[in-house]
Amino acid sequence: MTTTSAAFELFATCARGLEPLLVEELRALGATEAAERGGGAACRGDLAFAYRACLWSRLASRVLLPLSRFELPDAEALYRAAHGIDWPGWFSPERRFAVETAGRSPAVPHTHFAALKVKDAIVDRFRDALGRRPDVDAQRPEIVVHLHLDGTHADLSLDLAGSSLHRRGWRANGGEAPLKETLASAILLRAGWPEIAAAGGALLDPMCGSGTLPIEAALIAADIAPGLARQHYAFECLRNHDAALWRELKTQAERRRREGLARLPPIAGRDVSAEAIARARRNAQAAGLAGAIDWAQADLSAARPVGASPGLVVVNPPYGERLGNEPELIKLYSLLGSTLKRHFGGWRAALFTGRPDLAPRLGLRAAKIHSFYNGELPCKLLRFEIPAREPAGADTAPDFANRLRKNLRHLGRWAQRSGVSCYRLYDADLPDYALAVDLYRTDDGVHAHVQEYAAPETVDPVRAERRLRQALAAIQEVLQLPATAIHFKIRTPHKRGEQYGRLNETGRFWIVEEHGCRLQVNLDDYLDTGLFLDHRPLRRRIQREAAGKRFLNLFCYTGAATAHAVKGGAAASVSVDLSANYLEWARRNLELNGARAELRARRERAGARSRARHVLIQADALAWLREPLAANAPAPYDLILCDPPTFSASKRMSGTFDVQRDHVELIRAAAALLAPDGVLYFSCNRRRFKLETAALAGLEIRDLTAQTLDEDFKRPPPPHRCWAIRLAAHPAP
């Protein structure tokens, strides 16, 4: 690299999987030779080519000028090799420099120590030659020396750009899990975007995040050098830098940019997040593309073609590594496939994913598949040709959609008449569509909570995937909901001893209203939402009967029934549950209804000694009931609700709980706390549960199941059984 016209060796690094594309690009930029190597491409070219590679490469991470390759028996070999290079001939002592290290070697296991040895050698070489030394600046270096450890060998090079070329100079904030710009360009090149753009085709990214794909697409289509916005290149600080040549190349790039922007095809980015769209706009403006890309906040299912001609839909959905969860990803892929087939006939689509196993959920067959890496994660780029016309009925579910509409008319009218805001719309009414669909009218609109009853192994998985995709598309179409308002979960058979865990970590709660009660629900983080809809009539009954009474809620879950009791004028309440998380949720539910609750994280009975009107106790309910009453404490509760789980084996319990095995002891212990004219409501969700009435002699028991089922749950078999239990001396009227 001594004259403008002399050819010299360079090495361009890139992400794994991009090597073939990089070789093609380097040749197009003027390399006289280019060949694939692991992690990049070796090439030859003159000074103009080196500058063009830094300015124009969309795929290279670094452009390195090799200075020395040497054997590495020990750390001192680093010093000797580095000291042997004429560093003062490359840059002046006034320049700040840094040493960056990559790779591994058993001779020098610590890369920081290796970098220090090279730094010391460079400084000593300057002192020996000039009597003064350059400063080291790891934060803002003007010169970057690259050390690559390669087992028994090492390479020293100058990084001509000074930092990774994926840093185009426009990204302010990538948000969550952004694609590197170099990888985004590779995706677009493999997807055929340059040819589509040249023909006037449009591009749409329906999940654009901070805008990396649309911005890189605009840079490609407008023939804009990706490095034009960078403020600094390390080669500008080398002694043999040709400033005139560099100015000429930048002037040419500026001219090509102006001409390219004038013929830019339609490019659009959509995202459900307003914050992401704001970031994308800022990034586009920093890239010199203000007004060139159509940005809008929109749900995935609202994606529609842009421009007059078919083009390319490119999307990089979350992989489930850091974002999203499995059911949410299944929903997303299913709705994406339905949207593409319904609205983008004749277009091409490119899906970049770390979860190729979910690709069948799209219902599209990939025409080509390419392998890439996103960091260390192996990924696939799937390319699709979307049929101009989908065969009639190929991906629709008319029977399911019609049943949804029928149920919506009937149950919607009933809910409006009854003042019900949350109800079950559909519950496996058709054998081919084993779903439960619940509607929640919340403080920010209507949401659908959809649970798939996992298909048995005897069902063809391809058919099951197709039916689910059809069902989700029908739910969206009939209910006219965005994808973000459809909360999808898979309900698998619960093995004995297994506990349902947290599904997600959104921490997002909505407020619903039920018969004057305000309650929090969480539609994403747990299998259940915090509100059992089938118990709505029982909660309403408790609310009607609670005035002036003391209420005990055993296995209280999120305290919804306690909130109803409070709303009905209960004089006092005690709610018991083993989960601190649910008790905190219950506390918030009580506060929403004007009651302050005292939270106790230890087992103790709340009787006359407690000054708080409403108490929450963290305890195993059955163990708590087994504790003896204080000698002078009368059985204080006028109204008791006991709604136990079918089975529990929590680590915080001393044993296990089985409702069939333990219900007699549980009911007797709870009934012992009843006031003389009190009532205990016992509810159970176990399908084949049998109440042992003979073992409960001395108690008056009445089956209330039919009275505790609203219109939306009058499907056999009943979702629960419920009994009113009183002391025999005070039979129910």
Write a structural description.
- The protein is α/β, with parallel strands linked by helices and 733 residues long.
- The chain folds into four domains: 8-159, VC0802-like (2-Layer Sandwich); 181-221 and 263-385, Vaccinia Virus protein VP39 (Rossmann fold); 398-491, 2-Layer Sandwich (Transcription Regulator spoIIAA); 532-727, Vaccinia Virus protein VP39 (Rossmann fold, 3-Layer(aba) Sandwich).
- It contains 18 helices and 30 strands.
- Strand 5 (97-104), helix 5 and strand 6 (143-150) form a beta-alpha-beta unit.
- Helix 2 (47-56) runs parallel beside helix 9, helix 6 (181-190) packs across helix 8 and helix 15 (560-567) runs parallel beside helix 16.
- 45% of the residues are buried.
What is the element layout, followed by pairings?
Blueprint: E1 8-13, H1 19-28, E2 33-37, E3 40-45, H2 47-56, E4 62-71, H3 75-83, H4 87-90, E5 97-104, H5 111-130, E6 143-150, E7 153-159, H6 181-190, H7 193-198, E8 203-205, H8 212-221, H9 243-261, E9 267-271, H10 274-286, E10 294-297, E11 312-315, H11 326-343, E12 348-353, E13 368-374, E14 377-385, H12 398-418, E15 422-427, E16 435-442, E17 445-453, H13 461-479, E18 486-491, E19 510-514, E20 517-521, H14 536-545, E21 550-554, H15 560-567, E22 572-577, H16 580-592, E23 598-600, E24 614-618, H17 621-626, E25 637-642, E26 647-648, E27 657-658, H18 659-671, E28 674-684, E29 699-703, E30 721-727
Parallel strand pairs: 5-6, 8-9, 8-11, 9-10, 11-12, 17-18, 21-22, 21-25, 22-24, 23-24, 25-28
Antiparallel strand pairs: 1-3, 1-4, 2-3, 4-7, 6-7, 12-14, 13-14, 15-16, 16-17, 19-20, 26-27, 28-30, 29-30
Helix pairs in contact: 2-9, 3-5, 6-8, 11-13, 12-13, 14-15, 15-16
